[in-house]
């Protein structure tokens, strides 16, 4: 007898190898007899104490000490590794690879576990994919999960989660519909649902729901805040309870703790915000120092950099840069209101408008740093047009025009006005009082005397007064109308005298 025949005979009579009913059994021990005797078919069993003594399942492949040891009716399983699928009874079409992978699975189907202790306690769950040492270790009934990485989803009991990276989703228990990608991503999440965390330590402390964090340590401290979207390294890093925030960019909203409904876009945008609400910062370092201010809009590089107040709107690079406590300001244009620190309720429009203004309630419209086209003061209601001053000092409304005091006027236009029409609303009665029966019309002789003594008509301002105070259009128009109507009365009176003289001349002529 040659060597091949001798080996075959040895294996056959020793009980170490048996091939019957399309089963292949290699190993020793009492378990696995069900694979030797029909009705189980097409099984491959290699190792000690494996395969199930009463196995009736078919098309299984068990490799390793006690792999599939309890299998009874489960079919189409592949268990590779000592104690792999050791408790499986009726579960089918599972693939367990690694020491004790799927150890407690009894009736779960369509699972793929790769790595030592993967899905160790999964007993009745199905349709899971666990890859990495102890990934999905405690999963008992959670289904449709994908865990990849060392201890990823270790305590998971829920459905529909996807965890990639060492320790990702480690403490998740009942949270569903989560996607965690990166080492420690979603590490502390237990019950939060529908979160998406991508990046190492992203959402590390999260326990809330409906958050989306992208980037290294993005949303790391978030606990109960929900409906947040943080994108960028350290974005929303300190957020704990704040909700409905959107941060995009490295360190954007990094220090926010409880602030809500903020939108920060750009490197360091809204960096220092802690409890401020409903702010919008767009641009690198925009709103950088704002901590508790609310309802601010900062758009542009370092716009509102030092602002800690509320209700400001700064649009343009460097707008409101030094503003700290001023509120209710609206600055539009590069460097508008740059040096204003504490002023409130200002409106600056244009490049460098109000650049050196330090006060409050001011209006500036300019397109350069030299001249203000329009200046106004909301506290007095005054407006100046035409470059009334320069930025050498803080702009102020002029007090005089020539020798004329502007104390009682609301609008000053340097250089004059050209217009097609001016309509004046008189503050006193029109000159028709001249035609009233009781009007005292001065005799011409008296008017002549007044002119000789004063050098102007009665009730008409002198040249000196006009030079000093200027003209009030409405008043001077009324006075001129008064003189026209008086002149008309004089003409009527003269006409009557002329007619009377004409009659007398005619009578005298007829007599002669």
UniProtKB/TrEMBL annotation:
Keywords: Coiled coil, Signal
Signal peptide (from-to): 1-21
Domain of life, per lineage: Bacteria
Coiled coil: 484-511
Protein name as annotated: TMF family protein
């Amino acid at each position: 007898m040659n060597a091949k025949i001798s080996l075959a005979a040895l294996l056959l009579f020793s009980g170490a190898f048996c091939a019957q009913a399309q089963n292949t059994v290699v190993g020793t021990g009492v378990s696995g007899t069900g694979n030797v005797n029909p009705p189980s078919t097409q099984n491959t069993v290699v190792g000690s104490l494996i395969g199930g003594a009463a196995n009736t399942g078919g098309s299984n492949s068990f490799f390793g000490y006690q792999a599939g040891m309890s299998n009874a009716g489960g079919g189409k399983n592949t268990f590779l590794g000592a104690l792999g699928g050791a408790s499986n009874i009726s579960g089918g079409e599972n693939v367990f690879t690694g020491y004790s992978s799927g150890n407690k699975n009894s009736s779960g189907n369509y699972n793929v576990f790769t790595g030592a202790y993967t899905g160790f306690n999964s007993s009745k769950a199905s349709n899971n994919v666990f890859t990495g040492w102890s990934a999905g270790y405690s999963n008992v009934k959670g289904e449709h999960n994908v865990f990849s990485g060392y201890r990823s989803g270790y305590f998971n009991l829920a459905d529909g989660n996807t965890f990639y990276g060492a320790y990702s989703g480690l403490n998740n228990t009942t949270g569903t519909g989560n996607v965690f990608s990166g080492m420690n991503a979603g590490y502390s999440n237990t019950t939060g649902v529908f979160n998406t965390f991508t990046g190492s330590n992203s959402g590390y402390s999260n326990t809330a729901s409906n958050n989306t964090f992208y980037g290294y340590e993005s949303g790391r401290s978030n606990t109960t805040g929900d409906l947040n979207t943080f994108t960028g390294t350290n974005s929303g890093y300190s957020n704990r309870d704040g909700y409905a925030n959107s941060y995009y960019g490295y360190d954007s909203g990094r220090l926010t703790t409880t602030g809500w409904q903020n939108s920060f876009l750009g490197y360091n945008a809204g960096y220092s915000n802690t409890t401020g609400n409903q702010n919008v910062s767009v641009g690198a370092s925009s709103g950088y120092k704002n901590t508790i201010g609310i309802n601010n809009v900062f758009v542009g590089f370092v716009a509102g950099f030092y602002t800690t107040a509320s209700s400001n709107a700064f649009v343009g690079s460097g707008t409101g840069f030094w503003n700290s406590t001023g509120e209710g300001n609206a600055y539009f244009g590069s460097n508008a209101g740059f040096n204003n620190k504490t002023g409130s309720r200002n409106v600056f429009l244009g490049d460098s408008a109000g650049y050196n203004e330090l006060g409050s309630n001011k209006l500036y419209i300019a397109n350069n740093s030299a001249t203000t086209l329009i200046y106004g003061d909301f506290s007095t209601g005054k407006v100046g047009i035409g470059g009334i001053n320069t930025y050498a000092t803080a702009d102020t409304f002029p007090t005089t025009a020539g020798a004329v005091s502007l104390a009682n006027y609301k609008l000053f236009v340097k250089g004059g006005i050209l217009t097609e029409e001016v309509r004046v609303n008189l503050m006193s009665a029109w000159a028709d009082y001249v035609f009233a029966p009781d009007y005292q019309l001065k005799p011409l002789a008296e008017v002549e005397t007044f002119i000789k003594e004063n050098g102007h008509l009665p009730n008409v301002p002198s040249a000196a007064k006009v030079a000093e105070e200027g003209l009030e259009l409405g008043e001077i128009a009324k006075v001129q109308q008064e003189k026209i109507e008086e002149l008309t009365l004089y003409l009527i009176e003269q006409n009557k005298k002329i007619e009377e003289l004409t009659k007398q001349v005619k009578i005298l002529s007829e007599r002669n």
